[in-house]
Write a structure and sequence with these properties.
There is one protein chain. The protein is an alpha/beta fold. The protein has one domain: Rossmann fold, CATH 3.40.50.300. It is 32% helix and 26% strand. The protein contains eight helices and twelve strands. A six-stranded mixed β-sheet has the order 6-9-10-3-11-12, with helices on both faces. The longest helix is centred in the C-terminal third of the chain and has 16 residues. It is globular and about 60 Å long.
């Protein structure tokens, strides 16, 4: 293990967050190590989404401390978190359906070329997009094809490869296998493994224990905004994880 790998990439300590009288998070501890896939699990209302939104600056914690890459941080916006290397892929994927694959790949980070006017360097965008997709085993018919023509799994691949190319250190996936066919689920899980091989860490938020169990190194389970348990894969079976979520009780 490298020296830098001995410290968590993400460390959230005693995080509490309330919305009026509703307490969404109560003294939650959460961490992600370098090159680690962590399954963030829990039933509806467990606090999973609130926790990651607190990490990336959408919410400010009422209490607690957050460290990222060895530094104490308090992001004021998701853009700030993104600039520091945290890329979040939500269920809606933030893709523009009428735009091409390559335009969506760069979305907001398009390279330009100078002339009488600054214009998009479409050729460069297509070349880079195709190269990055190929590197993680993704085949598309054409990078000029509209995103609306892609399947759910292919759309996930665009969002995941985009995060890799732009230097993300942490990839947060919100229900990445929801509403996908079995074949497409397997493809997305392969992409997640490939992301780790490229040195990224992943937070995999899901209700589907069987999917995340295939790729995760560790599982953090929340219940009504509290830590229910934190287990390495070799310590717990998929059935035990499902049982804890269903009963709200640790092993």
């Amino acid at each position: 293990m490298n020296k830098e790998d001995s410290f968590p990439l993400v460390k959230m300590e005693n995080i509490s967050k309330s919305f009026g009288k509703i307490s969404a998070l109560k003294n939650v501890d959460f961490s992600v190590n370098p090159r680690e896939i962590v399954g963030l699990l829990g039933d509806n209302g467990a606090g999973k989404t609130t926790l990651v939104k607190t990490l990336v600056g959408i919410h400010s914690p009422n209490e607690g401390t957050i460290y990222f890459d060895g530094k104490k941080i308090s992001f004021s916006s998701p853009r700030e978190a993104r600039d520091m290397g945290i890329e979040t892929v939500y269920q809606d994927l933030a893709l523009v359906e009428l735009m091409s694959i390559s335009r969506n790949f760069f979305l907001g980070r398009e390279p330009t070329k100078l002339g009488a006017l600054r214009v998009l360097d479409v050729r460069k965008m297509d070349e880079i997009c195709k190269k990055v997709l190929t590197e993680i085993g993704i085949r598309v018919r054409s990078t000029n094809e509209p995103v609306s023509h892609l399947s759910g799994g292919e759309r996930q691949s665009i969002a995941i490869s985009r995060a890799m190319h732009f230097g993300a250190k942490l990839l947060i996936l919100d229900e990445p296998t929801a509403a996908l066919s079995v074949k497409e689920v397997n493809k997305v899980l392969d992409y997640v493994r490939e992301v780790r091989e490229h040195g990224l860490s992943v937070i995999f938020i899901t209700h589907n224990v069987n999917h995340v169990y295939l790729v995760a190194d560790r599982f953090t389970i929340l219940e009504h905004g509290k830590n229910l348990g934190d287990y390495r894969k070799e310590e717990v079976s998929a059935e035990q994880v499902s049982q804890m979520i269903a009963t709200g009780k640790p092993l």
